[in-house]
Recover the amino acids of this structure.
């Protein structure tokens, strides 16, 4: 491995991406303006003052257009070294108020310790201390030792301040992530509770009401066989038997909607194929399938698609008078779409009011970032398309 791999300056890594830099902006701009005025006032010639003003403006502009925008993250050492060079040039102008220019090193130290790793920020802090102290010692000799000790304390305090700000921001970000994860967990628990309640209702309906309806149907069938066709009660018994059978079929459909067994141990494609086959057998309507079996979708999307399929096919059986339906499940790079189309009587737009079934389909799809498209024309059938973004 090369030495560069172990050089903390060359391997500067960003720890914190500043999202709300208001306080950092205020402290940087105000400090630079005040210290620039103080430092420039200590210069004797107009030329030196203009040079100092240009260097201070360059310092602020680099902060505004590189640090604030995040462009410095592509190469942090270049940014922090460039700022240090500007401040070193200010110190070399030998202002009688050079401590004002040196104060800008403290601000730069805070910038470094806020966004960089601890070891890397420590290296930059030490480098800034050496530069500022070296200029003081070069200009004042041993008399500058007192200032050097003061600089040491100031740089340590600024480094601690920057590190504290960094940890505070990181803690805030972690808390936000935890809140987001907690909300997602609560949503999952809510969904699980809803599923459990639906399963309980399905079990109760199957074990009690459906069995009673089946028993009623059997009793009516026995009564019908014991009556003659010319008996006055015969038509009423036949009608009651037919209604009981219809009620049993409706209960079966309701139980499947509450607890779709097809998704318990199968993929979405397999569940669609099984449900369509059963629906075709019950309603005597042909079905053509175009199913992509290799579409990966989440459990929530599977549930939404399956519910849309159930509702669309139920509407087809009840209202369309169709002789054939086409069901497709396809996907591209951005979307996954489930389409149910029939060749029934269709309807004119505006003639059919929005109902619970349509609203339910839209709500389920909206929960998974999807949309529902329903189109129909008289004598041209109806098309229902559920579209979900893959992202």
């Amino acid at each position: 491995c090369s030495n560069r791999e172990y050089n903390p300056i060359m391997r500067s890594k960003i720890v914190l991406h500043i999202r709300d830099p208001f306080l950092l902006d205020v402290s940087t701009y105000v400090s630079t303006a005040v210290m620039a005025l103080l430092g420039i006032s200590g210069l004797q010639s107009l030329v030196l003052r203009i040079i100092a003003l240009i260097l201070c403006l360059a310092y602020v502009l680099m902060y505004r257009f590189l640090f604030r925008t995040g462009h410095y993250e592509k190469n942090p050492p270049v940014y922090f070294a460039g700022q240090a060079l500007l401040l070193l040039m200010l110190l070399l102008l030998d202002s009688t108020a050079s401590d004002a220019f040196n104060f800008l090193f403290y601000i730069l130290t805070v910038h470094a310790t806020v966004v960089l790793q601890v070891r890397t920020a420590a290296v930059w802090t030490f480098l800034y201390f050496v530069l500022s102290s070296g200029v003081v010692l070069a200009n004042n000799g041993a008399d500058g030792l007192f200032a050097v000790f003061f600089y040491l304390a100031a740089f340590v305090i600024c480094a601690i301040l920057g590190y504290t700000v960094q940890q505070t921001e990181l803690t805030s970000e972690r808390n936000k992530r935890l809140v987001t994860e907690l909300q997602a967990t609560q949503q999952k628990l809510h969904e699980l509770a809803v599923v459990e309640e639906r399963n309980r209702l399905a079990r109760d309906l199957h074990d009690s009401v459906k069995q009673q309806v089946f028993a009623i149907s059997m009793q009516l069938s026995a009564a019908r066989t014991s009556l003659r066709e010319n008996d006055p009660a015969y038509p009423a018994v036949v009608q009651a038997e037919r209604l009981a059978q219809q009620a049993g079929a409706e209960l079966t459909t309701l139980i499947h909607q509450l607890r779709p067994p097809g998704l318990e141990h199968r993929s979405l494609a397999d569940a669609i194929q099984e449900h369509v086959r059963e629906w075709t057998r019950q309603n005597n309507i042909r079905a053509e399938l175009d199913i992509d079996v290799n579409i990966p979708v989440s459990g929530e999307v599977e549930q939404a698609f399956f519910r849309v399929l159930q509702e669309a096919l139920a509407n087809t059986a009840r209202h369309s008078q169709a002789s054939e339906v086409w069901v497709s499940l396809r996907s591209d790079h951005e979307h996954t779409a489930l389409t149910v189309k029939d060749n029934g009587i269709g309807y004119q737009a505006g003639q059919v009011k929005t109902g619970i079934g349509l609203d339910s389909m839209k709500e389920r799809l909206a929960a998974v970032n999807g949309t529902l498209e329903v189109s129909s024309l008289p004598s041209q059938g109806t098309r229902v398309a559920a579209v979900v973004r893959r992202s």
Notes: Confidence is low (pLDDT under 50) at residues 1-11.
